[in-house]
Design brief:
Layout (H helix, E strand, L loop, with lengths): L1 H7 L1 H8 L6 H9 L9 H5 L7 H14 L5 H16 L5 H12 L3 E8 L2 E8 L2 H22 L6 H13 L4 H15 L10
Antiparallel strand pairs: 1-2
Helix pairs in contact: 1-2, 3-6, 5-6, 5-8, 6-9, 7-9, 8-9
Length: about 200
């Protein structure tokens, strides 16, 4: 399989694997472990998503688009590919691992500030499913950037993002703490839930 992928070129391998349900990360791991290492841009790698369902494709696009600055999507795709490559070295599929990590840090409820009769109350409410995923992605990416800035040995963003995803998967770390703090705040202010009008 390694020789076939390396010999055909990337587009031929993608056409061959299109529509199969094989996970993307083991194929990428096999392909990049060959002796003749060819550099591919992130867009070529992430264009292959034939075996993924719509929800996982949306998750990958959301991860890439949230981190993109000034339209430089190729750079972010390369960073995401490096993170995916690191996740492929674990015992699980990388995209499944990211999906499970996001499930562990998705907030179920949040609070909103509402002004009633001159007083401002923290009113708890249930979070929509799309917003849960958006908040989880945003929190993981923000914590990865914070840990990159805090690190003294100037670690790369791929390493920090990998560490945050693994912490979220293991139900620990700053992102999980942020979720628990938000749930605790919503539980504390549950007596103001009747002020919710939206």
């Amino acid at each position: 399989m390694i020789r076939a992928v390396a010999g055909k070129g990337w587009n031929g391998a993608v056409r061959e694997l299109q529509g199969s349900c094989a996970p993307i990360t083991p194929v990428l791991l096999q392909h990049y472990s060959t002796a003749s290492k060819t550099v591919y841009t992130g867009s070529e790698i992430l264009n292959y998503m034939g075996g993924l369902d719509g929800e996982k494709k949306q998750l990958i696009h959301k991860l890439v688009n949230f981190r993109m600055k000034q339209g430089k999507k190729t750079i972010v795709r390369a960073i995401f590919h490096e993170t995916l490559h690191r996740l492929a070295r674990t015992d699980r599929d990388g995209i499944e691992l990211i999906s499970d990590a996001l499930e562990n840090v998705k907030p179920v409820c949040e609070v909103a500030k509402v002004r009633i009769a001159g007083n401002i109350y923290d009113v708890p409410g249930v979070v929509d499913r799309d917003r849960q995923q958006t908040l989880a992605v945003r929190w993981i990416l923000d914590e990865a950037i914070k840990s990159k800035k805090k690190s003294k040995n100037s670690s790369r963003l791929e390493e920090c993002l990998f560490a945050q995803i693994m912490d979220a998967y293991r139900k620990r770390g700053d992102v999980r703490k942020k979720r628990e703090d938000l749930h605790r705040l919503a539980s504390t202010n549950r007596s103001y839930a009747h002020f919710r009008w939206w």
